[in-house]
Amino acid sequence: MLKPKLISQVLQQATTGGVKATILLNLEGSLLAFAAQSDRDARIYGALTSNIWSIYSKHVKTETGPLSFLMLECEEGKVAVSMVSTMILCLVAQEDVELGILKAKSEALTRHLEAPLSRVTGY
Amino acid sequence: MKKILLMGKSGSGKTSMRSIIFSNYIARDTRRLGATIDVEHSHVRLLGNLRLNLWDCGGQETFMENYFVSQRDHIFKNVEVLIYVFDVESRDIEKDMHYYQSCLEAIMTNSKDAKIFCLIHKMDLVQEDQRDRIYNERVLELQTRSLPLQVTTFRTSIWDETLYKAWSSIVYSLIPNVQLLESHLDNFCKICEADEIVLFERMTFLVIAHSTRIDNGDVHRFEKISNIIKQFKLSCSRTQGSFQSMEVRHANFAGFIDYLTNNTYVMVIMSDPTIQSAATQMNIAVARKHFEKLEGAQFAK
Ligand SMILES: Nc1nc2c(ncn2[C@@H]2O[C@H](COP(=O)(O)OP(=O)(O)O)[C@@H](O)[C@H]2O)c(=O)[nH]1
Ligand SMILES: [Mg+2]
Asked: Phi/psi zone of residue B141: left (φ > 0), alpha (ψ -120 to 50 degrees), beta?
């Protein structure tokens, strides 16, 4: 089972050094847990991310296997999205954060959460 | 198959209550019930494999006499639970008590381990400020008259949730190894950080187990929810829909009611606003598999 408060704490720890929000979503795009300035921010980032993820994964699947990572450089920031177990992890950072460090952070968090989140479907 | 005797004077409300709890009647419909002639048997299956054989015994004097004489063995053998219903407005308490005591005697000789429940029924007819007093008096008298047997008493009415409280407790007493179910529910409650988790029997919506970490203070909440959701479920089925789940969100809490196994519904109450609905729903989905297995094992024998 998912321990919601524990997951939130882990996400909170990653939300430093220019990272504005760290969000865990299910494949339908609903928020499972997050660390962000406001609920509203988290909801908006979550909705956009899951939408983009699902569109990309539909196109990618046929050619090179399932989508595993996505980096987006936007006008007002940078976004890293990855798959953890059956969930989507999304980090949103300010524009001055370098893509390399954001990717490293995202990978570290993914590694950290992969095993516990794979067990979530057990009791 | 567990045998349950439902006894009490004719008109005391036996058929009404069993129709509301087990046959989806609403209170208003019970006015159309005809008098029960002799014994009506009904079979109910709860939790998939808990089979109850309900003996609704018409309480007219001629039948009553018969039960104690010619049908004595037939009626009072192998009884698991005796439910005796007293009409609180009855004019002839002495006679009610006389039949009740004859019943206890027959139970003592034929089914000495039967559990006994006495319902002081139609409490809605008593003026509100008199209810406590009258009920307490009746309980005292019943306890003395029942000696050496121990009885469990409830005040009931088909017009409010008290009926659900009494019947939840009756059904609870019949579930084998209910503590196992409760310990798993405790675990579920702890892991998903809920205030409270309540398990309902799917057809009757009676509460069969619960786990509470944070008590909201209303001691009548279970039977109120049984009553409300059962009525809602019935109105869904009248419009051809079938009730599956609901989420209620309020400034101070969120409540989820959802099916858990083929035979149960679960209610999860969360007061922490930072915990997302999808997380709780995911945990309910995970618990579903676990409780299905557990239920299978519990009733395997
Ligand atoms: N006011 C009131 N009437 C009740 C209650 N329970 C049953 N009745 C009514 O009592 C009458 C007799 O009920 P019934 O179930 O046939 O009694 P039985 O002979 O014991 O089976 C019906 O008209 C019911 O509507 C109750 O809790 N309050
Ligand atoms: Mg009847």
From this structure: alpha
CA distance B187 to B269: 15
Return left, alpha or beta for B120; rule: phi > 0 is left, psi -120 to 50 is alpha, else beta.
beta
pLDDT at position B142, please? 93
Rounded to the nearest angstrom, the minimum Cα separation between B281 and chain A is 10
Best CA proximity match to B283, nearest among A33, A9, A34: A33
Specify burial of residue B212 (Cβ count, 10 A radius: 0-12, 13-18, 19+).
middle
Per-residue pLDDT band at B23 (split at 50, 70, 90): confident
Strand order across the B2-7 sheet: B39-46, B50-57, B2-7, B79-87, B115-121, B152-155
Tell me the C-alpha distance between B196 and B60, whole Å: 45
DSSP strand pairing (B246-249 vs B196-201): unpaired
> What is residue A122's predicted lDDT score, i.e. its pLDDT?
59
What is the gyration radius of the CA atoms in chain B, in angstroms? 20
Please give the Cα distance from B23 to B30 (Å, whole number): 11
Q: Copy the structure tokens of residue A28.
A: 């339908």
Ligand 1-lining residues (CB < 6 angstroms): B 8, 10-16, 30-31, 33, 35-36, 59, 121-122, 124-125, 157-159
Cα–Cα dist B269/B272, whole Å: 9
Give me the helices (H) in A1-123, please: 4-14, 39-64, 99-118
Burial environment of residue B290 by CB neighbours within 10 A (0 to 12, 13 to 18, 19 or more):
middle
Q: By the 8 A CB rule, do A42 and B278 touch? A: no
DSSP H stretches of helix in B156-241: 162-172, 178-191, 221-238
**Helix locations, chain B, DSSP H:** 14-22, 61-68, 72-76, 93-110, 131-146, 162-172, 178-191, 221-238, 277-298
At A55-102, the pLDDT tens digits run: 888 877 666 677 889 999 988 899 999 999 889 999 999 999 999 999
CB pairs under 8 A between A and B: 51
Q: Given pLDDT bands bounded at 50, 70 and 90, which one contains residue B300?
A: low
Q: Which atom of ligand 1 is nearest to the CA of B125?
A: 1
DSSP state letter for B9? S
ipTM greater than 0.90, yes or no?
Answer: no
Q: What tokens were used for B6?
A: 């439902």
CB B229 within 8 A of CB B248: no
